[in-house]
Amino acid sequence: MNELLFVLAIPLAASILLAFTGHRPYAANINIAGSLATLLAAVLLTIRIVRDGPMNVLGENFFVDPLNVFLIALTALVGFTTSVFSRPYMRVEHDHGKLSVGRLRLYHSMFQMFMCTMLVALSTNNIGILWVAMEAATLTTVLLVALYRTPESLEAAWKYFILCGVGIAQALFGTILIYFAAEQVFGHDPGAMLWTRLFERRSELEPTVLSLAFVFMIVGYGTKTGLVPLHNWLPDAHAEGPTPVSAVLSGLLLNVALYAILRCKVLVDGALETQFAGQLMMGFGLLTVVVPAFYLSRQKDVKRLFGYSSIEHMGLITFAFGMGGGIATFAGLLHMTVHSLTKSAIFFAVGHAAQMAGTQVIEDIKGLIRRSPTIGWGLMLGSLAILGMPPFGVFTSEFLILTTAIKYHPWATPILLVALGVAFASMFAKVQGMAFGEPTVKPLEHNPALLPVFLHLGLVLMLGLWIPPYLNKWFLLAAQMVG
Amino acid sequence: MTLALNIPDAFSIQVINLCAAVMLLLGFAMLAQRRILSLINLFMMQGMALFASTLIVAYTTNQSHLYWSAALTLTLKVIALPWILHRLIRKLSVKWDVETIINIPTTMLFGIALVVVAFNVAQPISQLSGAITRATIGIALACTLLSFLMMITRSKAVPQVIAFLSMENGLFFAATSATYGMPMVVELGIALDVMVGMVIFGVFFFQIRQQFDSLDIRQMERIKEE
Question: Average model confidence (pLDDT) for chain A?
Answer without folding.
Answer: 92
